[in-house]
Design a protein that fits this description.
The structure holds three protein chains of three kinds. Chain A has helices spanning about 15-35, 45-50, 70-85, 95-110, 215-225, 230-235, 265-270, 290-295, 300-315; strands at about 5, 35-40, 55-60, 90-95, 115-125, 125-135, 140-145, 150-155, 170, 180-185, 200-205, 225-230, 255-260, 280, 295-300. Chain A is α/β, with parallel strands linked by helices. Chain B has four domains: about 1-30, no CATH class; about 40-120, no CATH class; about 130-285, no CATH class; about 290-415, Rossmann fold. Chain B has a four-stranded parallel beta sheet with strand order 6-5-7-8. A four-stranded parallel beta sheet of chain B has the order 10-9-11-12, sandwiched between helices. In chain B, strands 1-4 form a two-stranded antiparallel ribbon. The structure holds flavin-adenine dinucleotide (FAD) and iron/sulfur cluster (2 copies).
């Protein structure tokens, strides 16, 4: 059985969290299967960043231009490495880079791919991966073939530990194909929010009572890393712009978390948010229809809960 | 347009006063034919939209158009703007008309928005140039057979909790007297389902021999037609007619005035000719068979739906039913019968809520609810499935929660007949 | 510039997924299908490119239940050609098989640019654009929100976590996975789709089904979910604590 190969992604400072998670989990799998572990990193700092990772071996591709992700160069390089090392598992986080590399590398080296993986378990001689598909409505349990596979893993599927090690370090540099060139990178504009793109929505309804209470929602959104959205009466009252309205005559959203504060859950509202992965409803009325589609509900006063939750989240 | 020519004398004497140079400047009269009418011509060249060109600016329509009371709108204004070269195709004006038919009632020239709007909108829709919300409703209707985007296979789910048997034609396999065409909001919207349950129980208690199409039914499509999606309407009409052809029945009863309109005037063009009644018409004939056990000791007012009243002339059947209810004190609002106000949901308005908001000081439904409250009504009775959600929402947004209840006539009937446990008054 | 847009239909999640819970397998024939929303985005971007700088757009789909409707709609929206790949196919095709079928067709065609949805709800075994690119040995980029033609090549924008965007120049041929078009997908009126269905032809191309690396899903199952909200009781502090815990359990607190 070949080694486990982990592809590291560069972030603003060092490797991104989702890659570090792969190291922790990958090492655990390697240990259980008694195979070796290899991490691959790119860019001028690759060697210094890789050399303390708790794996058996690291491969640093040190072309300075590759500090920045380059779809074609990464894919070609990685395909070469996979051909040479014949890993049993190739792990890459399901980020933009992972979406590129996972499918591209797997098909160019004729390996199967398991996408959107959020669990890998070892059961006897079998390695079983579980993926979340059909917008989270189904889980797929897949036995990893003995001949190996590429796995793209959902960020946040595992937690990372900060262990270190002293792996064998291979350093190389590659030819960068001229047919693709990175021209520039553009930072996102912070000003305009698009609630359809937010992973977390703190949504408020008529229960907010007045515009003076909106700061409670904004502070909570900030503490949790989300965006404030609302039901229609809040827009009608002019407290929030129309772009924040969720529902039939507003936006349809599918965030990972939708927290409904003081929203009754009228069908016109539900139409815009019922597919959220996790819905938590805060409503003093236990029988409000929002409770029928929420996963968790509570009847405490939203105006008290919002600051309490903000404080708690800030503390963590 | 040409600039008007100034006439200026060196000196002019007016009433003994000497006016020099620019002080006596006047302008030559300008002929109206100097307008560039190409935009107006483009619009009136669209089959169906010809009558926009007949307008002679008398202004009668402006006084009755419900949209003008909350904004700046009427056929007269649309004509004027088009004459000035603002194309109706790109203007928000194209989407504000609810096709309520009030202007046609008063227009001496028969400028007919009921034909103009769908014709011009169809052009805009062909170019994909329509508000997002509306396109979503079209797409939902095409895909699921209802504008709400609910699964087509769940169209008959409400029958399971109706408490009485609601026969579905494909399972019943025998002719019926009445084929009940339920429509979308009565099948899916929680408040619509309550009204459907009430109607099913009334039918049951009257021993009506009836059946519904269930999942074989799709939206009648009339509002989509008025909103400019004629192709979609055709597809739906063909589908419904095909499904209906599989079964034998004596007549159709519809819940929805929009469906009533489609069955009366449009479906025959596609070979679907039926005896059709709105449920208020059917039930008013059955009044002698009804026995009432519960009082409704409230002041009730009735909102005439545009597509039952003005479009199809039925004002009495709903009133007969309401008057028969024991305890009911029926009051008429100022806008009633022919002059009834509009709930704002017709002609696609149901799917343009957010869009119209930018061009109106308030919703039409909110206006109407305020009127009902002014007349001291406890209950606003309705007979169109668009209206319960629209008015209930408006009751809340106008701060009248607890003062006015919105109820379908079937719900009142079912209560008075002792077929449902309670009247849910304050919401 | 000749652009191919690879399109497919996916089970409609508005309805329940048909699952044989005992066998843990999906009953593909018992579901209704809708065009994959990201493929609609890819088609829109292709049409925007066409309007902006001139291009020939060909919509390509594999014959399964809904492909005619999908292709006629693409024609109604402004696609120049529509190609249906026919063969011994059914709804249970894996994405790897689909990618191979697409690649077998594309190999022999003079396309410069291939667009497809960055992902689809059913791609357990990978996403079409990357798989097709890998099989054909073409360069590829996914999660792209803009493609513009420049000289002989293209300039694309690739989006990363947090909204960071890279502008990348690429020569053609190239495969691009579209996350979102520059405009929302246009609406094709039913009248137009019906008219197109009467007047235009879909080109049919026969493609064999070759062997590809397979993945066996041992079972599909539904994650446990409650019908009514699970109520969190206690005073405000208890509730805040429990909610924080729920968020922690689901990894929603990591930034
Ligand atoms: C054509 C049409 C289109 C529409 N489109 C949309 C749309 O796109 N989006 C939309 O949202 N609505 C839409 N609506 C309106 C919709 O029908 C509802 O009226 C609206 O969603 C209600 O908003 P809400 O839940 O904020 O207010 P309410 O229904 O008044 O609910 C407020 C809730 O807050 C709770 N509450 C009050 N105080 C507190 C407190 N201190 N702590 C906790 N809970 C509290 C109450 O129990 C209540 O359940 C539309 C309606 C129509 C007719
Ligand atoms: S049909 Fe009704 S809404 Fe339309 S212009 Fe005439 S009066 Fe106004
Ligand atoms: S009533 Fe008729 S003629 Fe008079 S202004 Fe209105 S549309 Fe024109």
């Amino acid at each position: 059985m070949g080694p486990i190969l982990i592809v590291m992604e560069n972030g603003a400072s060092g490797f991104v969290d989702s890659s570090k998670e792969l190291i922790t989990k990958g090492r655990e799998i390697a240990k259980n299967l008694e195979i070796s572990s290899i991490a691959v990193g790119f860019g001028q700092d690759a060697e210094s960043q890789l050399k303390n990772l708790p794996v058996d071996r690291v491969i640093a591709i040190t072309n300075p231009e590759l500090s920045q992700y380059h779809p074609l160069a990464y894919e070609k390089t990685l395909s070469e490495i996979v051909k040479k090392e014949e890993p049993y598992l190739t792990l890459v986080a399901n980020t933009t880079m992972g979406m590129d590399l996972g499918a591209g590398v797997a098909s160019s080296v004729s390996l199967p791919l398991i996408a959107y993986c959020n669990q890998v378990a070892i059961a006897g001689q079998e390695v079983v991966a579980t993926s979340s598909v059909f917008a989270g409505k189904l889980m797929a349990e897949i036995v990893v073939p003995k001949s190996g596979a590429v796995l793209t893993v959902m960020p946040g599927a595992w937690s990372a530990t900060e262990d270190s090690g002293s792996p064998q370090v291979d350093v190389l540099s590659v030819d960068i194909p001229p047919s693709m060139r990175i021209l520039r990178t553009i930072e996102p504009e912070k000003s305009d929010v698009d609630i359809t793109k937010a992973d977390i929505l703190i949504s408020v309804g008529r229960g907010i009572e007045g515009p003076e209470n909106l700061t409670l929602a904004e502070e909570l959104a900030e503490a949790i890393g989300g965006v404030v959205s609302c039901s229609r009466p809040v827009v009608d009252a002019g407290w929030l712009p129309k772009s924040r309205q969720v529902g039939k005559s507003g936006q349809t959203v599918k965030p990972k978390l939708y927290m409904a504060f003081g929203i009754s859950g009228a069908p016109e509202h539900q139409q815009g948010m019922k597919d959220a992965d996790l819905i938590i409803a805060v409503n003093t009325d236990e029988n409000a229809s929002i409770m029928d589609i929420a996963h968790f509900g509570t009847t405490v006063d939203m105006l008290e809960l919002m600051p309490a939750l903000t404080e708690r989240l800030r503390g963590e | 347009m040409q600039k008007a020519k100034p006439i200026e004398l060196d000196v002019a004497v007016v009433d003994g006063v000497e006016l020099k140079g620019s002080w006596n400047r006047m302008f030559e009269p300008r002929a109206i034919s100097e307008y560039d009418l190409s935009i107006l011509d483009e619009i009136t060249a669209i089959p169906g939209a010809e009558s926009l060109g007949y307008c002679y600016q008398c202004g009668k329509c402006t006084g009755v158009c419900p949209v003008d009371t909350v904004g700046d709108y009427s056929p007269r204004k649309i004509f004027r703007r088009t004459q000035l070269g603002i194309s109706l195709m790109d203007s928000p004006d194209l989407w504000l008309c609810t096709t309520c038919r009030n202007c046609l009632r008063v227009c001496p020239k028969e400028v007919n928005m009921i034909d103009i709007m769908p014709a011009v909108r169809e052009r805009a829709v062909l170019e994909g140039n329509a508000p997002e919300e509306l396109l979503q409703a079209f797409e939902n209707t095409a895909r699921y057979g209802n504008p709400i985007g609910e699964p087509g296979r769940k169209r008959a789910e409400w029958t399971k909790s109706a408490g009485v048997s609601v026969p579905i034609m494909s399972q019943k396999k025998s002719p019926v007297d009445v084929l009940w065409f339920v429509e979308c909001y009565p099948s899916y919207h929680p408040r619509g389902k309550q009204a459907s349950t009430a109607l099913a129980r009334v039918f049951d208690s009257l021993h009506v021999d009836f059946g519904i199409l269930g999942n074989e039914e799709k939206c009648s499509g009339d509002s989509q037609r008025m909103a400019g999606e004629h192709g979609l309407f055709e597809m739906l009409a063909e589908h419904n007619i095909k499904m209906l052809s599989k079964y034998s029945f004596n007549q159709i009863v519809v819940t929805d005035p929009h469906a009533y309109n489609a069955f009366l005037h449009e479906y025959p063009k596609y070979g679907g000719e039926y005896v059709v009644q709105h449920y208020t018409q059917y039930l008013s004939q059955r009044l002698p068979d009804m026995s009432f056990t519960h009082d409704i000791p409230y002041r009730v007012t009735f909102h005439d739906p545009c597509y039952l009243g003005r479009h199809n002339g039925e004002y009495d059947a709903p009133r007969q039913l309401l008057k028969a209810l024991p305890g009911v004190d029926l009051v008429e609002m100022g806008h009633c019968r022919e002059t009834s106000y509009c709930c704002g949901g017709g002609g696609g308005g149901m799917w343009l809520d957010s869009f119209t908001r930018d061009y109106a000081s308030e919703r039409l439904s909110e206006r109407r609810v305020k009127e009902a409250v002014e007349y001291g009504a406890d209950i606003l009775a309705v007979s169109c499935p668009y209206e319960v959600p629209r008015f209930e929402d408006a009751v809340k947004s106008t701060g009248n929660a607890g003062k006015l209840a919105v109820m379908d006539i079937t719900e009142l009937l079912a209560y008075a007949m002792g077929l449902v446990d309670s009247l849910v008054m304050a919401n | 510039m000749h652009i191919a847009v690879l399109m497919k239909s996916v089970p409609d999640l508005v309805e329940d997924i048909a699952l044989d819970e005992h066998e843990g397998q999906i009953l593909f024939d018992e579901m209704s299908y809708v065009p994959s929303e990201w493929d609609d985005q890819a088609l829109e971007e292709a049409l925007v490119i066409k309007e902006e700088s001139g291009a020939e757009v060909t919509a390509v789909s594999i014959e399964t239940q809904d492909s005619d409707n999908l292709l006629f709609t693409a024609l109604a929206k402004g696609s120049d050609n529509a190609v249906k790949l026919v063969g011994d196919f059914d709804l249970s095709l894996t994405n790897r098989q689909r990618a191979q079928i697409f690649a077998d067709y594309l190999h022999k065609q003079p396309f410069d640019l291939i667009l497809s949805g960055v992902q689809a709800i059913d791609d357990v075994d990978g996403q079409i654009p990357g798989l097709v690119a890998g099989i054909m040995g073409w360069p590829h980029a996914s999660v792209v929100t803009e493609v513009r033609v420049k000289d002989q090549g293209i300039i694309l924008r690739q989006e990363y976590a947090g909204g960071l965007v890279a502008e990348i120049e690429s020569s053609t041929p190239v495969v691009v996975g579209i996350q979102a078009a520059r405009k929302p997908p246009r609406y094709a009126s039913i009248a137009k789709v019906r008219q197109v269905a009467k007047s235009r032809q879909i080109e049919e191309v026969e493609v064999p089904l070759s062997n590809v690396p397979a993945l066996t899903v041992r079972r599909f199952y539904k994650p446990v979910a409650s019908a009514h909200a699970e109520m969190v009781d206690g005073d405000v502090e208890d509730v805040a604590a429990r909610i924080a815990e729920i968020l922690q359990e689901r990894n929603l607190l990591r930034r």
